[in-house]
Design a protein that fits this description.
Blueprint: H1 9-49, E1 56-60, H2 83-101, E2 129-133, E3 137-142, E4 147-153, E5 170-176, E6 179-185, E7 204-213, E8 216-224, E9 233-242, E10 257-259, E11 265-267
Parallel strand pairs: 4-5
Antiparallel strand pairs: 1-2, 1-9, 2-3, 3-4, 5-6, 6-7, 7-8, 8-9, 10-11
Length: 272
Amino acid sequence: MVPDGSPNPTENVMESKSRLRLGRLRCVIAVAPWFLALLPLSVEAQSGADHPDLTGAWGIYRGGRGADPKLAAPPATPLVLKPEFAKPYEAKRAAEAEAQRRGEQLANGSVMCVPYGVPTMMSIAIYPVEIIQTPKQVTIIGEAFSEVRRVYMDRPQAKIEDVAPGYYGRSVGRWEGDTLVVDTVGIKTTVNGYRGMPHSEQMRVTERFHLVAPDILHDQITIEDPVVLEKPMTYTVAYKRMPNYEMVEFVCDNNREYVDDKGVVRMKVREH
């Protein structure tokens, strides 16, 4: 109050500011739980935005005349099997080559509608793959046989002996800068490896997905197997982005191929 008893304008202003601060504090207290609930999602979304977006369809890229050699897949390292596995593998490859010279195809899993599995499904003839990328999981779909594998992000890998063997095993992934690193174990021994190579239950497949250009993706695949391989071997699959491609359903329900008594693939021309 001023000496004459009238209200002090300065006190009124200070009181108004105090009420305003109190109102804002109450608002913050009320909003804080909502903000805290949303914060982890915001952080996760931001961390996902920091990585390259691999989502979409990708077709096999083989380069060709006039193409930038840096975009094509580099040569594979030598496949060196231990002696007890090398001899039967080489005999199998020789038999396949001889059959091809005769215009024939020897039996393989695809003739019996069996999935290719990891890692072969990443490169089947001209069939593309589709990648669906989220912060917690990367899903890879191969158009051939509609094969699906799931990569669980930022989870620890299980011990090999704790993974039930299958066609795709168990895959976990992590980002190393702009490279997606995928570790896969638990591929059953009936699934053919690179170029039909044999493998044991101890096989480990490590993939490094990296964009070498905005629309060119490399999947560097390293296979380790202390039982079968003398040393790890590495090969790379190159892909080109297919922006408007829609994946086609591929179901092996009308298979006209069969294997004769000599192990050669034949075609049924009509039903008897």
